[in-house]
């Protein structure tokens, strides 16, 4: 089906929904690289005007990749909940935007609506929204998940402690973990990106993490972010809490990651069977990021933000504990500067939340992007206001293994302090018991004799 | 960096753990904030990385030095990218020569074509890395290639180039393989790291799995003599097997890879 909009005497035509979505997207370098961006500012607004008038029902009829060709499309349509969709089934995309911002769309209404929304509907409405709208709507959502603690409650912000080391040296990793715990980080997960994907190296790191957790009775979960097939191979003889995988929004892009839906289902069932969660059974940890499908040459003519939101359909099928959009990692050919990174992060967070996902954001950039710490400070503050479930905690914001800059333990303290946000309740209680944090949430000085420093001495011997 | 010590800083009593990692741990704090001394140290590292991204290939200086160690022609080429701003956003253009450059290669005399190996020096994301490391590496590598009986095509300097620009250059030179020396994406701890990519049977459209990569060439990383030895070994293996990439396993010595 084609779409059009006329501005004065000029009529802009868009061949199909896929093209309309791409042309309506706020500018970013990746869409230009793919040849999908609008040619002018006017064309972009024309596309947004046309998109605003598209009935939501169209999204159930016109796919951006054919049903027969792509299992993500099949998943989206086969799991669409018509009952949940019913209250908004007569809306256009524009009406959905206005309704989302209305007082009628409260937390309960948004939670009830979530299974009735498809990724393409959510991507479409986000393209019409200003940054302020993306923050307002996300702030009204609440997505709570549980494993050994409770993540995503309103007024809380959790942190993935990311203690990476360039040679996976357990002592070096332990040093960064102690640093992070003493700064109040680690309630989302203690998660290591391994430098190698060898099963034995992963097992060694998992055992180290589990010993540390058990010795200090830390109410959190651990993860070594290896490929899902590696986790499946070792999960019956190693302490696997969460199963990790990078995912994307097209079948072909997922195949380039070495996965498909059947494999994820098998991994999910395997992780559930371990029964390691104490307060809940959300056992999956997914990472995504705009541009990944284009980077794998598997975007099928879909703009990078719509591809990203389709990845959330994959995620929500497996009830994850954490979904993390690694927004600025991919580089300037996809998101050029601080402005594009900030916009993309707010989109991802809001779209994921609308689809019912426990969204966190890796607020980050590489050295060849036009961005710096000031941009990250802005984004961190905006996401704190928007109610982001979790962020990363990297020593001094400098990841020495992945060679990029994320947020620091100090950054997490900053945003919790200025916005009055708390760590996950179980973890916060533990921090207080350990003398790391006081009852107001302020971090306390620790002495040489702190028992966590005793651990590091033992581990380093 | 020397900043006067002040009393607002809450020091962390685990500085001894820094012995186990180069991560920025035990930074201390003032309130919830990182102490200024550490903020400025970070900013300086980022400044070095940013300056490296925007650095220029010293084409004339490199040409002069190359001609002192290499008897054949040294060519100055350019990708189809207009400037660094475009380079960062259009990797496709950084992989292709501009028309003047491709014309010059096509017009080269036949005697320079069909050689064993074409060596290309591209700025990539850190021209600084090439300006510092390319000559010392080639001073060791060129004699090793000669000793192994390999013929070397005219050396090429490629401004605003990506790794795959070597495919077009190699194809126009009809070289059996290419070695692209290129500036790697600068990290906070290393703004001058050089990479070397070996591709057997270069042609446009080759993808990453057809290449072997030697990374982190710099004095504090993989030093020149080890890098040259490793490249020389991979070239021999590539010619023995008539391929490069994932099927060419790197069994040369025991090196600490990143």
UniProtKB/TrEMBL annotation, chain A:
<feature type="binding site">
    <location>
        <position position="362"/>
    </location>
    <ligand>
        <name>substrate</name>
    </ligand>
</feature>
<keyword id="KW-0456">Lyase</keyword>
<keyword id="KW-0846">Cobalamin</keyword>
<dbReference type="GO" id="GO:0009350">
    <property type="term" value="C:ethanolamine ammonia-lyase complex"/>
</dbReference>
<comment type="subunit">
    <text>The basic unit is a heterodimer which dimerizes to form tetramers. The heterotetramers trimerize; 6 large subunits form a core ring with 6 small subunits projecting outwards.</text>
</comment>
<dbReference type="InterPro" id="IPR013785">
    <property type="entry name" value="Aldolase_TIM"/>
</dbReference>
<feature type="binding site">
    <location>
        <position position="194"/>
    </location>
    <ligand>
        <name>adenosylcob(III)alamin</name>
    </ligand>
</feature>
<protein>
    <recommendedName>
        <fullName>Ethanolamine ammonia-lyase large subunit</fullName>
        <ecNumber>4.3.1.7</ecNumber>
    </recommendedName>
</protein>
<dbReference type="GO" id="GO:0046336">
    <property type="term" value="P:ethanolamine catabolic process"/>
</dbReference>
<comment type="pathway">
    <text>Amine and polyamine degradation; ethanolamine degradation.</text>
</comment>
<comment type="similarity">
    <text>Belongs to the EutB family.</text>
</comment>
<dbReference type="GO" id="GO:0031471">
    <property type="term" value="C:ethanolamine degradation polyhedral organelle"/>
</dbReference>
<dbReference type="GO" id="GO:0005829">
    <property type="term" value="C:cytosol"/>
</dbReference>
<dbReference type="InterPro" id="IPR010628">
    <property type="entry name" value="EutB"/>
</dbReference>
<feature type="binding site">
    <location>
        <position position="401"/>
    </location>
    <ligand>
        <name>adenosylcob(III)alamin</name>
    </ligand>
</feature>
<dbReference type="Pfam" id="PF06751">
    <property type="entry name" value="EutB"/>
</dbReference>
<feature type="binding site">
    <location>
        <position position="295"/>
    </location>
    <ligand>
        <name>adenosylcob(III)alamin</name>
    </ligand>
</feature>
<feature type="binding site">
    <location>
        <position position="287"/>
    </location>
    <ligand>
        <name>substrate</name>
    </ligand>
</feature>
<feature type="binding site">
    <location>
        <position position="245"/>
    </location>
    <ligand>
        <name>adenosylcob(III)alamin</name>
    </ligand>
</feature>
<dbReference type="GO" id="GO:0008851">
    <property type="term" value="F:ethanolamine ammonia-lyase activity"/>
</dbReference>
<keyword id="KW-1283">Bacterial microcompartment</keyword>
<comment type="function">
    <text>Catalyzes the deamination of various vicinal amino-alcohols to oxo compounds. Allows this organism to utilize ethanolamine as the sole source of nitrogen and carbon in the presence of vitamin B12.</text>
</comment>
UniProtKB/TrEMBL annotation, chain B:
<dbReference type="GO" id="GO:0031471">
    <property type="term" value="C:ethanolamine degradation polyhedral organelle"/>
</dbReference>
<keyword id="KW-0846">Cobalamin</keyword>
<dbReference type="Pfam" id="PF05985">
    <property type="entry name" value="EutC"/>
</dbReference>
<keyword id="KW-1283">Bacterial microcompartment</keyword>
<comment type="pathway">
    <text>Amine and polyamine degradation; ethanolamine degradation.</text>
</comment>
<feature type="binding site">
    <location>
        <position position="184"/>
    </location>
    <ligand>
        <name>adenosylcob(III)alamin</name>
    </ligand>
</feature>
<dbReference type="InterPro" id="IPR009246">
    <property type="entry name" value="EutC"/>
</dbReference>
<protein>
    <recommendedName>
        <fullName>Ethanolamine ammonia-lyase small subunit</fullName>
        <ecNumber>4.3.1.7</ecNumber>
    </recommendedName>
</protein>
<feature type="binding site">
    <location>
        <position position="163"/>
    </location>
    <ligand>
        <name>adenosylcob(III)alamin</name>
    </ligand>
</feature>
<keyword id="KW-0456">Lyase</keyword>
<dbReference type="GO" id="GO:0046336">
    <property type="term" value="P:ethanolamine catabolic process"/>
</dbReference>
<comment type="function">
    <text>Catalyzes the deamination of various vicinal amino-alcohols to oxo compounds. Allows this organism to utilize ethanolamine as the sole source of nitrogen and carbon in the presence of external vitamin B12.</text>
</comment>
<dbReference type="GO" id="GO:0006520">
    <property type="term" value="P:amino acid metabolic process"/>
</dbReference>
<dbReference type="GO" id="GO:0009350">
    <property type="term" value="C:ethanolamine ammonia-lyase complex"/>
</dbReference>
<comment type="subunit">
    <text>The basic unit is a heterodimer which dimerizes to form tetramers. The heterotetramers trimerize; 6 large subunits form a core ring with 6 small subunits projecting outwards.</text>
</comment>
<dbReference type="GO" id="GO:0008851">
    <property type="term" value="F:ethanolamine ammonia-lyase activity"/>
</dbReference>
<feature type="binding site">
    <location>
        <position position="213"/>
    </location>
    <ligand>
        <name>adenosylcob(III)alamin</name>
    </ligand>
</feature>
<dbReference type="InterPro" id="IPR042251">
    <property type="entry name" value="EutC_C"/>
</dbReference>
<comment type="similarity">
    <text>Belongs to the EutC family.</text>
</comment>
<keyword id="KW-0170">Cobalt</keyword>
<dbReference type="InterPro" id="IPR042255">
    <property type="entry name" value="EutC_N"/>
</dbReference>
<dbReference type="GO" id="GO:0031419">
    <property type="term" value="F:cobalamin binding"/>
</dbReference>
């Amino acid at each position: 089906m084609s779409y059009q909009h006329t501005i004065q005497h000029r009529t802009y035509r868009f061949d199909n929904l896929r093209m309309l979505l791409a042309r309506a997207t706020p500018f970013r370098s990746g869409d230009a690289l793919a040849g999908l961006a609008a040619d002018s500012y006017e064309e972009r607004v024309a596309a947004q005007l046309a998109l605003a008038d598209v009935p939501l029902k169209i999204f159930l009829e016109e796919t951006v990749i054919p049903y027969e060709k792509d299992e993500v499309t099949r998943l989206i349509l086969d799991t669409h909940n018509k009952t949940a969709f019913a209250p908004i089934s007569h809306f256009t995309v524009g009406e959905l935007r206005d309704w989302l911002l209305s007082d009628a769309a409260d937390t309960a209404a948004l939670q009830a609506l979530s299974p009735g929304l498809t990724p393409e509907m959510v991507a479409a409405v986000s393209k019409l929204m200003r940054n302020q709208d993306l923050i307002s709507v996300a702030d009204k959502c609440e997505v709570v998940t549980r494993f050994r603690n409770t993540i995503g409650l309103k007024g809380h912000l959790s942190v993935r402690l990311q203690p990476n080391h360039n040679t996976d040296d357990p002592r070096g990793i332990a040093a960064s973990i102690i640093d992070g715990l003493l700064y109040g980080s680690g309630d989302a997960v203690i998660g290591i990106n391994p430098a190698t994907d060898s099963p034995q190296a992963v097992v060694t790191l998992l055992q180290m993490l589990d010993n540390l957790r058990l010795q200090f009775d830390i109410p959190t979960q651990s993860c070594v972010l290896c490929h899902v097939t590696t986790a499946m191979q070792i999960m019956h003889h190693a302490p696997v809490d969460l199963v990790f995988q990078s995912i994307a929004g097209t079948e072909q892009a997922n195949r380039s990651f070495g996965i498909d839906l059947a494999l994820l289902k098998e991994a999910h069932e395997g992780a559930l069977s371990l029964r390691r969660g104490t307060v809940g059974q959300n056992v999956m940890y997914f990472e995504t990021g705009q541009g990944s499908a284009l980077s794998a040459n598997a975007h099928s003519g879909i703009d990078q933000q719509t591809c990203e939101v389709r990845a959330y359909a994959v995620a929500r099928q497996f009830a994850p504990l954490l979904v993390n959009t690694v927004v600025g990692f991919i580089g300037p050919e996809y998101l050029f500067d601080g402005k594009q990174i900030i916009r993309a992060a707010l989109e991802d967070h809001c779209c994921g939340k609308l689809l019912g996902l426990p969204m966190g954001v890796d607020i980050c950039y590489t050295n060849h992007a036009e961005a710096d710490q000031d941009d990250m400070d802005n984004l961190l503050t905006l996401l704190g206001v928007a109610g982001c479930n979790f962020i990363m905690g990297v020593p001094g914001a400098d990841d020495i293994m992945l060679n990029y800059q994320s947020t620091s333990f100090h950054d997490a303290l900053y945003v919790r302090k200025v916005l009055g946000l708390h760590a996950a309740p179980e973890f916060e209680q533990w921090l207080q018991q350990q003398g790391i944090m006081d009852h107001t949430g302020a971090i306390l000085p620790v002495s040489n004799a702190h028992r966590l420093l005793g651990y590091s001495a033992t581990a380093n011997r | 960096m020397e900043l006067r010590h002040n009393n607002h800083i809450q020091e962390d009593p685990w500085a001894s753990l820094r012995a186990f990692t180069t991560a920025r741990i035990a930074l201390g704090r003032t309130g919830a904030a990182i102490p200024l001394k550490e903020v400025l140290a970070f900013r300086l590292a980022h400044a070095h990385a940013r300056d490296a991204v925007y650095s220029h290939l010293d084409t004339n200086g490199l040409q002069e030095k190359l001609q002192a160690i290499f008897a054949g022609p040294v060519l100055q080429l350019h990708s189809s990218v207009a400037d660094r701003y475009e380079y960062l956003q259009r990797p496709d253009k950084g992989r292709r020569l501009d028309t003047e450059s491709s014309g010059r290669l096509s017009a080269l005399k036949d005697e320079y074509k069909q050689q064993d190996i074409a060596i290309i020096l591209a700025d990539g994301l850190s021209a600084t890395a090439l300006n510092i490391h390319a000559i010392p590496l080639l001073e060791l590598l060129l004699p090793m290639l000669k000793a192994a009986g390999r013929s070397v095509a005219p050396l090429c300097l490629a401004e605003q180039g990506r790794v795959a620009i070597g495919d077009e250059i190699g194809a126009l030179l009809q070289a059996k393989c290419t070695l692209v020396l290129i500036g790697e994406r600068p990290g906070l701890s290393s703004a001058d790291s050089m990479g070397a990519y070996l591709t057997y049977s270069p042609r446009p459209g080759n993808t990453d799995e057809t290449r072997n990569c030697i990374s982190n060439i710099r004095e504090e990383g993989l030093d020149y003599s080890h890098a040259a030895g490793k490249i020389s070994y991979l070239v021999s293996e590539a010619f023995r097997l008539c391929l490069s990439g994932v099927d060419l396993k790197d069994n040369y010595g025991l090196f600490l890879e990143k």
